[in-house]
């Protein structure tokens, strides 16, 4: 069986930084101690999602001496495409001067997006005869936030990450996956208007006062944080257990747990439910916030750059959960030197 996995990771965060003092309604103690966020990155008005993706892809190619002509595919994951159509992966192909022979596909996933996209890339190599390609996560999510809604406006960052996936990987070998979806929870993280169900209109653009500190229109994000936490608590431990059983490993075989970086309290709670040591549960929200599908590759890159607990042959677990009440867990084996 082919050994398939990750050989390189890079990411891009927009230069503009907003700290908690920007938000008049922000309770800094709660944001910093419970949510774990001090700063977040926001794209310029003239930057689109493809611009963020191009930054990450070019950085990946240049820093790792990747031959563009050898890339077989690009899997681009985003909730904020430049346009309703065409697909953003096509724009990234031409802007990054990738070969026209490349297979390109957009994946419309949120917080589980990287784990799902990684499995797509693995399948392309295992089943299509491809040798190597890119998984790209990119979002200008700030366009979906009402800055009159304290429940969401402080949480998210714009970002992009690019990952080289190939046979005989240099960093991580993919060992096992578990995926699931419970669509009964779709209404708990939703932007009601903008799709075929409800077109954007003058009516959907009207702001409604929900309660003090919460005003939004149907064009902006609504999130029920309590229900999301309940969902994560109920699904992540069982998903992790399934992956352990599939791979013949245990919690003691893990050097790192890298969860989707939602908020500090949630990540600490999941870590306790799993029973993993706190120092193995990586959290990097402080100066980034929630970077949606890019949160896991950004965290992986940080750990690698900091040379923290890099033990050849040991395992790392990555877990995405959230939007659409979908989840994905992947066990990786560190094969770097």
Shape: globular
Strand order of the largest sheet: 5-4-6-7-1-8-15-14-13
Per DSSP E runs of 2 or more residues, the count of β-strands stands at 15
Please write the CATH class name of the largest domain.
Alpha Beta
Which consecutive residue ranges, at least 5 long each, have pLDDT under 50? none
Q: What is the CATH H-level superfamily of the largest domain?
A: Thiolase/Chalcone synthase
β-strand percent reads 25-35%
CATH topology of the largest domain: Peroxisomal Thiolase, Chain A, domain 1
Helix % is 25-40%
Category by helix and strand content: alpha+beta
Largest sheet: 9 strands, mixed
Name the helix and strand elements from N-terminus to C-terminus, one letter apiece.
EEHEHEHEHEEEEEEEHEHHEE
> What is the number of helices?
7
Q: Output the radius of gyration.
A: 19 Å
| Terminal-residue CA separation | 22 Å
CATH architecture group name of the largest domain = 3-Layer(aba) Sandwich
Offer a concise description of the structure.
This protein has about 325 residues and is an alpha+beta fold.
Structure description:
- It contains 7 helices and 15 strands.
- The chain has about 325 residues and is of the alpha+beta class.
- It has 2 domains: about 5-170, Peroxisomal Thiolase, Chain A, domain 1 (3-Layer(aba) Sandwich); about 175-185 and about 220-335, Peroxisomal Thiolase, Chain A, domain 1.
- α2 (about 50-65) crosses α3 and α5 (about 225-245) runs parallel beside α6 (about 265-275).
- It is globular and about 55 Å long.
- The two termini are about 20 Å apart.
């Amino acid at each position: 069986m082919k050994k398939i996995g990750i050989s390189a990771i890079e990411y891009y965060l927009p230069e503009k930084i907003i700290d908690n003092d920007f938000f008049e309604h922000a309770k800094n103690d709660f944001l910093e101690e419970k949510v774990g966020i001090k700063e977040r990155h926001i794209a310029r008005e003239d930057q689109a999602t493809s611009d963020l993706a191009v930054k990450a892809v070019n950085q990946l190619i240049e820093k790792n001496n990747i031959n563009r002509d050898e890339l077989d595919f690009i899997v681009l994951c985003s909730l904020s495409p430049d346009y309703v159509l065409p697909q953003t992966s096509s724009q990234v192909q031409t802007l990054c001067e990738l070969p026209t022979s490349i297979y390109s596909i957009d994946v419309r996933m949120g917080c589980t997006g990287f784990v799902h996209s990684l499995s797509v890339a693995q399948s392309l190599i295992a089943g299509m005869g491809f040798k190597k390609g890119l998984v790209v996560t990119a979002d200008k999510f700030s366009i979906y936030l009402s800055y009159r809604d304290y429940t969401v406006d402080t949480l998210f960052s714009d970002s992009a990450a690019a990952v080289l996936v190939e046979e005989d990987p240099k960093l991580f070998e993919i060992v096992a996956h578990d995926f699931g979806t419970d669509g009964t929870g779709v209404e708990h993280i939703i932007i009601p208007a903008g799709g075929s169900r409800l077109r954007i209109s003058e009516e959907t653009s009207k702001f409604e006062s929900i309660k003090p500190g919460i005003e939004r229109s149907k064009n902006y994000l609504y999130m029920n944080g309590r229900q999301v936490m309940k969902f994560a608590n109920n699904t992540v431990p069982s998903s992790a257990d399934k992956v352990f059983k599939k791979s013949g490993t245990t919690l003691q075989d893990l050097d790192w747990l890298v969860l989707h970086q939602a908020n500090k309290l949630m990540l600490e709670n999941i870590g306790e439910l799993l029973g993993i040591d706190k120092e193995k549960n990586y959290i990097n929200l402080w100066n980034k916030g929630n970077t949606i599908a890019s949160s896991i590759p950004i965290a992986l890159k940080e750990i690698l750059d900091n040379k923290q607990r890099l033990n050849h042959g040991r395992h790392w677990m990555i877990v995405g959960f959230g939007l659409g009440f979908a989840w994905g867990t992947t066990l990786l084996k560190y094969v770097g030197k």
